[in-house]
Amino acid sequence: MPEATTHTAQGLLGGCVISIFVSFILYGLVVAQTYSYMIKFREDPRWLRTSVMILCGLETAYTICVMHWLYHMMILGFGELDIVDVIPGSATVSLILEVAIAVMVQSQYLRRLWLISRRNTWLVAPIAALLVIRIGLGMTTVAFLFILGRFSAFTVSFAPKATIDAANYIQSTADALIAGSLIYYLQRSKTGIAKTDGALQWIIQYVMNTGALTMAVSLGIAITFIALHNNLLFAGLFTIVSRLYANAFLGSLNGRHILRLASHPGSSTTEPTDEFSTYITAEPVLTRSFPRPASTIYRSRQMDVSQADDMKYPKDIHIVGETPAVV
User: Fold this and answer.
1) Which pLDDT band holds residue 132 (cuts at 50, 70, 90)?
2) The three-state (H, E, C) secondary structure of 271-298, written as one string
3) Radius of gyration over every alpha carbon of the chain, rounded to an integer in angstroms
4) 140-149: average pLDDT
5) For residues 95 and 102, is the Cβ–Cβ distance under 8 A?
6) Residue 298 backbone phi and psi in degrees, to 5
7) Tens-place pLDDT, residues 31-46
8) What letters, b where the CB count within 10 A reaches 16 and e where it falls short, cover 263-284?
9) Are 13 and 70 in contact (CB under 8 A)?
10) Mean of pLDDT over the chain
11) By C-alpha distance, which of 303, 208, 320 is closest to 264?
Protein backbone atom coordinates (compact mmCIF):
# COMPACT_ATOMS: atom_id res chain seq x y z
CA MET A 1 0.00 0.00 0.00
CA PRO A 2 1.47 3.42 -0.84
CA GLU A 3 2.65 5.58 2.02
CA ALA A 4 0.05 8.31 1.39
CA THR A 5 -2.77 5.76 1.41
CA THR A 6 -1.46 4.28 4.68
CA HIS A 7 -1.67 7.64 6.39
CA THR A 8 -5.13 8.21 4.95
CA ALA A 9 -6.31 4.83 6.27
CA GLN A 10 -4.86 5.59 9.69
CA GLY A 11 -6.60 8.94 9.80
CA LEU A 12 -9.89 7.54 8.58
CA LEU A 13 -10.11 4.32 10.59
CA GLY A 14 -7.61 4.47 13.48
CA GLY A 15 -9.78 6.00 16.20
CA CYS A 16 -12.87 4.16 14.97
CA VAL A 17 -11.25 0.71 15.17
CA ILE A 18 -9.84 1.36 18.66
CA SER A 19 -13.29 2.50 19.83
CA ILE A 20 -14.83 -0.67 18.41
CA PHE A 21 -12.32 -2.81 20.34
CA VAL A 22 -13.26 -0.95 23.53
CA SER A 23 -16.94 -1.57 22.79
CA PHE A 24 -16.27 -5.31 22.52
CA ILE A 25 -14.80 -5.27 26.03
CA LEU A 26 -17.84 -3.41 27.30
CA TYR A 27 -20.08 -5.98 25.59
CA GLY A 28 -18.32 -8.69 27.60
CA LEU A 29 -19.26 -6.77 30.75
CA VAL A 30 -22.89 -6.61 29.57
CA VAL A 31 -22.99 -10.40 29.17
CA ALA A 32 -21.32 -10.95 32.56
CA GLN A 33 -23.70 -8.56 34.30
CA THR A 34 -26.72 -10.13 32.62
CA TYR A 35 -25.64 -13.60 33.75
CA SER A 36 -25.01 -12.34 37.29
CA TYR A 37 -28.42 -10.68 37.42
CA MET A 38 -30.32 -13.73 36.13
CA ILE A 39 -28.63 -15.93 38.77
CA LYS A 40 -28.90 -13.59 41.76
CA PHE A 41 -32.36 -12.13 41.24
CA ARG A 42 -34.54 -15.04 40.17
CA GLU A 43 -37.49 -13.63 42.15
CA ASP A 44 -37.56 -10.25 40.45
CA PRO A 45 -40.74 -9.40 38.50
CA ARG A 46 -41.04 -11.12 35.15
CA TRP A 47 -41.25 -7.85 33.25
CA LEU A 48 -37.92 -6.71 34.71
CA ARG A 49 -36.12 -9.97 33.95
CA THR A 50 -37.59 -9.92 30.45
CA SER A 51 -36.35 -6.35 29.96
CA VAL A 52 -32.84 -7.43 30.94
CA MET A 53 -32.95 -10.33 28.48
CA ILE A 54 -34.19 -8.05 25.69
CA LEU A 55 -31.45 -5.54 26.47
CA CYS A 56 -28.79 -8.25 26.30
CA GLY A 57 -30.31 -9.54 23.06
CA LEU A 58 -30.18 -6.05 21.52
CA GLU A 59 -26.56 -5.67 22.59
CA THR A 60 -25.71 -9.03 21.03
CA ALA A 61 -27.38 -8.08 17.75
CA TYR A 62 -25.56 -4.75 17.90
CA THR A 63 -22.22 -6.54 18.36
CA ILE A 64 -22.90 -8.80 15.35
CA CYS A 65 -23.62 -5.74 13.20
CA VAL A 66 -20.44 -4.00 14.37
CA MET A 67 -18.39 -7.15 13.69
CA HIS A 68 -19.77 -7.28 10.14
CA TRP A 69 -18.96 -3.60 9.65
CA LEU A 70 -15.43 -4.21 10.95
CA TYR A 71 -15.06 -7.12 8.49
CA HIS A 72 -16.27 -4.84 5.72
CA MET A 73 -13.62 -2.24 6.59
CA MET A 74 -10.65 -4.47 7.39
CA ILE A 75 -11.09 -7.42 5.01
CA LEU A 76 -13.31 -6.46 2.09
CA GLY A 77 -11.90 -2.95 2.08
CA PHE A 78 -8.27 -3.89 2.73
CA GLY A 79 -6.21 -1.45 0.68
CA GLU A 80 -9.35 -0.09 -0.97
CA LEU A 81 -10.53 3.06 0.77
CA ASP A 82 -13.23 3.45 -1.84
CA ILE A 83 -14.85 0.26 -0.48
CA VAL A 84 -14.35 1.41 3.10
CA ASP A 85 -16.17 4.63 2.22
CA VAL A 86 -19.34 2.69 1.35
CA ILE A 87 -21.83 2.55 4.24
CA PRO A 88 -22.79 -1.12 4.72
CA GLY A 89 -26.27 -2.14 5.81
CA SER A 90 -24.86 -3.44 9.09
CA ALA A 91 -23.73 0.07 10.05
CA THR A 92 -27.23 1.40 9.43
CA VAL A 93 -28.88 -1.39 11.44
CA SER A 94 -26.41 -0.83 14.27
CA LEU A 95 -27.53 2.81 14.50
CA ILE A 96 -31.16 1.69 14.83
CA LEU A 97 -30.15 -0.70 17.62
CA GLU A 98 -28.11 2.01 19.36
CA VAL A 99 -31.12 4.31 19.45
CA ALA A 100 -33.33 1.47 20.75
CA ILE A 101 -30.87 0.57 23.54
CA ALA A 102 -30.32 4.16 24.67
CA VAL A 103 -34.03 5.00 24.71
CA MET A 104 -34.88 1.71 26.47
CA VAL A 105 -32.43 2.41 29.30
CA GLN A 106 -33.40 6.06 29.58
CA SER A 107 -37.06 5.02 29.73
CA GLN A 108 -36.25 2.75 32.68
CA TYR A 109 -34.57 5.63 34.46
CA LEU A 110 -37.50 7.87 33.58
CA ARG A 111 -39.87 5.35 35.14
CA ARG A 112 -37.80 5.45 38.32
CA LEU A 113 -37.96 9.23 38.34
CA TRP A 114 -41.73 9.10 37.87
CA LEU A 115 -42.07 6.80 40.87
CA ILE A 116 -39.65 8.54 43.20
CA SER A 117 -41.17 11.95 42.36
CA ARG A 118 -44.60 10.55 43.33
CA ARG A 119 -45.78 10.48 39.71
CA ASN A 120 -44.90 14.08 38.93
CA THR A 121 -46.16 14.29 35.35
CA TRP A 122 -45.00 17.90 34.92
CA LEU A 123 -41.44 16.76 35.58
CA VAL A 124 -41.45 13.54 33.59
CA ALA A 125 -43.47 14.59 30.51
CA PRO A 126 -40.90 17.08 29.08
CA ILE A 127 -38.11 14.51 29.42
CA ALA A 128 -40.30 11.87 27.76
CA ALA A 129 -40.88 14.34 24.92
CA LEU A 130 -37.10 14.70 24.50
CA LEU A 131 -36.80 10.92 24.18
CA VAL A 132 -39.48 10.86 21.49
CA ILE A 133 -37.65 13.60 19.59
CA ARG A 134 -34.43 11.60 20.01
CA ILE A 135 -36.08 8.60 18.35
CA GLY A 136 -37.27 10.76 15.45
CA LEU A 137 -33.83 12.28 14.89
CA GLY A 138 -32.22 8.85 15.08
CA MET A 139 -34.52 7.47 12.41
CA THR A 140 -33.89 10.55 10.27
CA THR A 141 -30.16 9.88 10.51
CA VAL A 142 -30.78 6.28 9.43
CA ALA A 143 -32.64 7.58 6.37
CA PHE A 144 -29.67 9.81 5.46
CA LEU A 145 -27.32 6.82 5.73
CA PHE A 146 -29.46 4.92 3.23
CA ILE A 147 -29.85 7.87 0.87
CA LEU A 148 -26.24 9.09 0.81
CA GLY A 149 -24.60 5.67 0.91
CA ARG A 150 -21.05 6.91 1.53
CA PHE A 151 -19.31 8.24 4.63
CA SER A 152 -17.54 10.92 2.58
CA ALA A 153 -20.92 12.37 1.56
CA PHE A 154 -22.51 11.76 4.94
CA THR A 155 -19.85 13.62 6.94
CA VAL A 156 -19.90 16.78 4.80
CA SER A 157 -23.64 17.15 4.23
CA PHE A 158 -25.41 19.72 6.36
CA ALA A 159 -28.56 17.72 7.09
CA PRO A 160 -26.81 14.67 8.68
CA LYS A 161 -24.64 17.00 10.73
CA ALA A 162 -27.72 18.81 12.01
CA THR A 163 -29.60 15.62 12.91
CA ILE A 164 -26.65 13.87 14.60
CA ASP A 165 -25.69 16.95 16.60
CA ALA A 166 -29.28 17.64 17.62
CA ALA A 167 -29.82 13.98 18.58
CA ASN A 168 -26.72 13.85 20.77
CA TYR A 169 -27.39 17.22 22.40
CA ILE A 170 -30.95 16.13 23.20
CA GLN A 171 -29.71 12.79 24.53
CA SER A 172 -27.18 14.57 26.75
CA THR A 173 -29.86 16.97 27.97
CA ALA A 174 -32.18 14.09 28.83
CA ASP A 175 -29.34 12.37 30.71
CA ALA A 176 -28.63 15.53 32.68
CA LEU A 177 -32.30 16.13 33.57
CA ILE A 178 -32.89 12.52 34.62
CA ALA A 179 -29.69 12.30 36.67
CA GLY A 180 -30.18 15.70 38.27
CA SER A 181 -33.80 15.00 39.20
CA LEU A 182 -32.99 11.57 40.64
CA ILE A 183 -30.18 13.05 42.72
CA TYR A 184 -32.51 15.77 44.01
CA TYR A 185 -35.18 13.33 45.16
CA LEU A 186 -32.66 10.87 46.58
CA GLN A 187 -31.05 13.69 48.56
CA ARG A 188 -34.46 14.67 49.95
CA SER A 189 -35.10 11.08 51.00
CA LYS A 190 -32.28 10.95 53.53
CA THR A 191 -33.58 10.05 56.98
CA GLY A 192 -30.66 10.79 59.29
CA ILE A 193 -30.05 7.09 59.86
CA ALA A 194 -26.43 6.34 59.04
CA LYS A 195 -26.88 3.04 57.17
CA THR A 196 -29.84 4.25 55.16
CA ASP A 197 -28.20 7.55 54.26
CA GLY A 198 -24.98 5.74 53.34
CA ALA A 199 -26.87 3.55 50.89
CA LEU A 200 -28.62 6.60 49.43
CA GLN A 201 -25.31 8.38 49.03
CA TRP A 202 -23.95 5.37 47.12
CA ILE A 203 -26.91 5.54 44.75
CA ILE A 204 -26.44 9.31 44.29
CA GLN A 205 -22.78 8.88 43.38
CA TYR A 206 -23.59 6.04 41.00
CA VAL A 207 -26.27 8.06 39.19
CA MET A 208 -23.96 11.06 38.99
CA ASN A 209 -20.97 9.14 37.62
CA THR A 210 -22.82 7.04 35.06
CA GLY A 211 -24.87 10.03 33.89
CA ALA A 212 -21.74 12.15 33.45
CA LEU A 213 -20.00 9.37 31.49
CA THR A 214 -22.81 8.84 28.97
CA MET A 215 -23.21 12.61 28.57
CA ALA A 216 -19.50 13.00 27.87
CA VAL A 217 -19.48 10.32 25.17
CA SER A 218 -22.65 11.70 23.54
CA LEU A 219 -21.14 15.17 23.39
CA GLY A 220 -17.91 13.63 22.09
CA ILE A 221 -19.84 12.13 19.16
CA ALA A 222 -21.31 15.51 18.26
CA ILE A 223 -17.97 17.32 18.56
CA THR A 224 -15.89 14.80 16.60
CA PHE A 225 -18.49 14.59 13.85
CA ILE A 226 -18.21 18.35 13.29
CA ALA A 227 -14.50 18.88 13.98
CA LEU A 228 -12.86 15.80 12.42
CA HIS A 229 -13.60 15.56 8.70
CA ASN A 230 -12.65 12.36 6.87
CA ASN A 231 -12.46 10.56 10.21
CA LEU A 232 -14.83 7.87 11.48
CA LEU A 233 -14.04 8.35 15.17
CA PHE A 234 -17.60 9.54 15.74
CA ALA A 235 -18.89 6.20 14.43
CA GLY A 236 -16.61 4.33 16.82
CA LEU A 237 -17.90 6.36 19.75
CA PHE A 238 -21.43 5.35 18.73
CA THR A 239 -20.46 1.73 19.41
CA ILE A 240 -19.38 2.66 22.95
CA VAL A 241 -22.31 4.78 24.12
CA SER A 242 -24.93 2.01 23.97
CA ARG A 243 -22.67 -0.26 26.03
CA LEU A 244 -22.33 2.44 28.66
CA TYR A 245 -26.11 2.73 28.95
CA ALA A 246 -26.57 -1.04 29.23
CA ASN A 247 -23.79 -1.49 31.80
CA ALA A 248 -25.05 1.43 33.89
CA PHE A 249 -28.55 -0.05 34.03
CA LEU A 250 -27.39 -3.59 34.76
CA GLY A 251 -24.93 -2.33 37.35
CA SER A 252 -27.73 -0.55 39.19
CA LEU A 253 -29.70 -3.79 39.31
CA ASN A 254 -26.80 -5.96 40.43
CA GLY A 255 -25.71 -3.40 43.02
CA ARG A 256 -28.86 -3.93 45.10
CA HIS A 257 -27.50 -6.91 47.01
CA ILE A 258 -24.48 -4.85 48.14
CA LEU A 259 -26.77 -2.16 49.54
CA ARG A 260 -28.96 -4.71 51.32
CA LEU A 261 -26.02 -6.47 52.92
CA ALA A 262 -24.57 -3.14 54.01
CA SER A 263 -27.81 -2.06 55.69
CA HIS A 264 -29.06 -5.46 56.89
CA PRO A 265 -26.21 -7.98 57.24
CA GLY A 266 -27.46 -11.51 56.77
CA SER A 267 -30.57 -10.46 54.81
CA SER A 268 -31.59 -12.12 51.56
CA THR A 269 -30.05 -10.67 48.40
CA THR A 270 -32.66 -12.17 46.10
CA GLU A 271 -35.78 -10.59 47.56
CA PRO A 272 -37.97 -9.49 44.66
CA THR A 273 -38.16 -5.74 44.13
CA ASP A 274 -39.94 -4.01 41.33
CA GLU A 275 -40.45 -0.42 42.41
CA PHE A 276 -37.57 1.99 42.74
CA SER A 277 -39.64 4.40 44.82
CA THR A 278 -40.51 1.66 47.31
CA TYR A 279 -37.11 2.04 48.88
CA ILE A 280 -37.06 5.80 49.12
CA THR A 281 -40.60 6.48 50.33
CA ALA A 282 -40.07 6.86 54.04
CA GLU A 283 -41.51 10.25 54.91
CA PRO A 284 -42.46 11.97 58.17
CA VAL A 285 -46.13 11.23 58.88
CA LEU A 286 -46.54 11.49 62.64
CA THR A 287 -44.90 12.96 65.67
CA ARG A 288 -45.88 11.64 69.10
CA SER A 289 -45.23 12.88 72.63
CA PHE A 290 -43.45 10.54 75.03
CA PRO A 291 -41.99 11.01 78.51
CA ARG A 292 -38.84 12.10 76.76
CA PRO A 293 -38.47 13.63 73.26
CA ALA A 294 -39.22 11.11 70.56
CA SER A 295 -37.92 10.91 67.03
CA THR A 296 -40.04 11.38 63.97
CA ILE A 297 -41.88 8.22 63.05
CA TYR A 298 -41.71 7.08 59.46
CA ARG A 299 -44.26 5.07 57.61
CA SER A 300 -43.19 1.71 56.18
CA ARG A 301 -44.71 -0.04 53.21
CA GLN A 302 -46.84 -2.32 55.37
CA MET A 303 -47.91 0.21 57.97
CA ASP A 304 -50.26 3.18 57.85
CA VAL A 305 -50.88 5.83 60.47
CA SER A 306 -53.86 4.06 62.05
CA GLN A 307 -51.75 0.95 62.61
CA ALA A 308 -48.99 3.07 64.08
CA ASP A 309 -51.37 4.51 66.68
CA ASP A 310 -52.28 1.03 67.93
CA MET A 311 -48.70 0.01 68.59
CA LYS A 312 -46.91 0.34 71.91
CA TYR A 313 -43.77 2.27 71.19
CA PRO A 314 -40.63 2.43 73.29
CA LYS A 315 -39.52 5.89 74.25
CA ASP A 316 -37.48 6.48 71.07
CA ILE A 317 -38.14 4.66 67.85
CA HIS A 318 -37.68 4.97 64.11
CA ILE A 319 -39.98 3.01 61.85
CA VAL A 320 -38.36 2.99 58.45
CA GLY A 321 -39.03 1.48 55.08
CA GLU A 322 -36.97 -1.13 53.36
CA THR A 323 -33.32 -0.77 52.56
CA PRO A 324 -32.68 1.75 49.78
CA ALA A 325 -31.85 -0.02 46.59
CA VAL A 326 -31.95 0.54 42.88
CA VAL A 327 -34.28 -1.35 40.55
Assistant:
1) very high
2) CCCCCHHHHHCCCEEECCCCCCCCCCEE
3) 24
4) 88
5) no
6) -110, 145
7) 999 999 999 888 889 9
8) beeeeeeeeebeebbbbbbbee
9) no
10) 76
11) 320
